[in-house]
Amino acid sequence: MGLQIYNTLVKDKVEFKPLKEGEVSIYVCGPTVYDFLHVGNFRGPVFFNLVRNWLEKKGYKVKYVSNFTDIDDKILARSLKENVDSLVISERYIGEYKTDFQNLGLRAHDMNPKVTEHLADIETMIARLIENGKAYEVDGEVLYAVRSFAEYGKLSRRDIDDMRTGTRVEPGEKKRDVLDFALWKPAKPGEQSWPSRWGAGRPGWHIECSAMVKAIFGDTIDIHGGGMDLIFPHHENEVAQSEGASGKPFVNNWMHWNMINFGDRKMSKSVGNVRTAREFLKQYNAEIYKFMILSVHYRSISDFSDQGIERAIAGLARAYSAMAHAERLMAGTVIEGGKVATSLLDTMTKGAEKLGLALDDDFNTPEAFAEVFNVIRAYNATVKPGKPNADSFANAKAFLVWMRETGSLFSLYQQPAVQFLTTLDDMLLSQKGLQRLEIDTKVQARWAAKQAKDFATSDKLRDELAALGISISDTAEGTRWEVAK
User: Fold this and answer.
1) CA–CA separation, 175 vs 138, rounded Å?
2) Pairing relation of β-strands 23-28 and 61-66?
3) 351 with 375: CB under 8 angstroms?
4) Whole-number Cα distances in Å, 393 to 337, 340, 406
5) Nearest-angstrom CA–CA distance, 338 and 380
6) CA 211 – CA 71 distance, rounded (Å)
7) Is the model's pLDDT at 397 over the cut of 90?
């Protein structure tokens, strides 16, 4: 059995079959660029980075596109507030998005189209919808006639008559039906606008993505992604527009990721727990963010509570500690002729197979991560005290190769391990209000006391370090310490 993907349209897993053999087209709804993006906005980029990497690993040539919405009411509102051109606003926050994206260590998309680059395509699609009897124009506003599309509601599983219950067209509204939505909006007095055959104005949000997909890929694409909050109305309206214009299926596989919660509370401005990605990455680390996102299945809620962050730190510390051991061992004299332990080799081989099966099962990342930790345990079991030999050198080399290659799928485990652990400890020390120098001083004093056989002082200093949350281990070269995780 090949790759299975949960398709929101049919609400079940289906076998992935690309439109064109060996090639995959992916479009993921990108950000509306009017402010810094919050932590939830990057769940999609992190997850679809894995999707693209896994499809390429399976031999597909992937074209992965994610847009920038640079014409939107929120952008125009900020433009009026700051008294600057809306493109100044959008370009500013496109730049900020790219900074966050690069800080996360993700591969660049193949294309990042902007709405402003596709206004002619938007106008053409709207005209086609009018021609096909799916839209109508009233006083410079163009509206989609929802009831003209018989399958409206098929993606979100909503009944069109239920949606109309309790609603009505208000006097003065231009809609023929309360469910009709805007494809082109006439400009308001003093508002920035763009020309069209229906007069100056701006496109509706939904038509923007439909037109960009059509211009870049054609009528039908393999995969369309977005957050679950976009299923209705955004993606439902995209389906109506694109299929209403072309008469062909719009998307073969709809993939939607779930939201981020902080403990038992959703992130919202009213609660006051909205955190920007920039703030999170500054306080914590890109590896922590990616681990938190990918260690949970993409269709499940991701927990960004303090406990969730602590779990991520502990998981990363386990991986990087084993990698750091291997790095230190290999930093010495190269010892050739060793043989990788059978137990480790078997675990890595089976782990790679099971990890592949997990990712083929609708990107079951929790199962995939379980295989990574099985390999880490198998490597740790090979570690013996004493000087390195040819076999331990071979184990370390094979383990590091496996971790780097496997981690590259997730854009994880690529940092120099010793350096990453130091960064992690510095972050945790800062949160505790401690300085590395004071910990080093205590550790060195304890080692000196132990060497002098002053065990009372040595034990006292060990207890003081433990009370500060510092874990120590003695080696032939001296004492190593880390913040307990």
Assistant:
1) 8
2) parallel
3) yes
4) 9, 9, 20
5) 17
6) 14
7) yes
Rounded to whole angstroms, the Cα distance separating 9 from 252 reads 9
Cis preceding-peptide flag for 233 (omega within 30 of 0):
yes
At 481, is the secondary structure helix, strand, or coil?
strand
Helix (H/G/I), strand (E/B), else coil: 449? helix
List pLDDT tens digits, range 142-170: 999 999 999 999 999 999 888 865 555 55
d(CA 185, CA 203): 6
Checking if the pLDDT of 57 tops 60, the result is yes
**Per the structure block, which two tokens stand in for 137?**
């124009």
Closest CA to 141 of 207, 54, 88: 207
Say how many C-beta atoms besides its own lie within 10 A of residue 415's C-beta.
19
**pLDDT, tens digit (0-9, with 9 covering 90-100), for 441-473:** 999 999 999 999 999 999 999 999 999 999 998
Q: Distance (Å, rounded) from C-alpha 25 to C-alpha 17?
A: 11
Question: Coil, strand or helix: which one is 413?
Answer: coil
* Residues contacting residue 380 through CB under 8 Å, at least 6 positions apart: 322
**C-alpha span between 455 and 321 (Å, rounded):** 28
State the amino acid at position 33 in one-letter form. Answer: V
| DSSP at 229 | G
**Long-range contacts, stretch 46-49, CB < 8 angstroms, 24+ apart:** 46/104, 46/106, 46/289, 46/290, 46/293, 46/294, 46/411, 47/257, 47/293, 47/294, 47/298, 47/363, 48/225, 49/106, 49/107, 49/411
Residues in the chain: 485
Tell me which residue of 51, 430, 480 sits closest to 225, measured CA to CA: 51
The 8-class DSSP code of residue 258 comes to -
* C-beta of residue 201 within 8 angstroms of C-beta of residue 140: yes
Cα maximum dimension of the chain: 92
- Distance, CA of 379 to CA of 381 (rounded, Å): 5
Give residue 105's pLDDT band: very low, low, confident or very high (50, 70, 90).
very high
Q: Which amino acid, one-letter code, is at 433?
A: G
3-state secondary structure at position 340: coil
Q: Average pLDDT for residues 272-293, to the nearest whole number? A: 92
| pLDDT at residue 179 in the model | 93
For residue 12, give the H/E element and its range.
strand 12-15
The number of CA neighbours under 13 Å toward the Cβ of 215 is 22
Burial class (CB in 10 A: 0-12, 13-18, 19+), 374: middle
Distance CA 327, CA 331 (A): 6
CB contact set of 164 (below 8 Å; sequence gap of 6+): 177, 178, 179
Q: 3-state class of 6 per DSSP?
A: strand
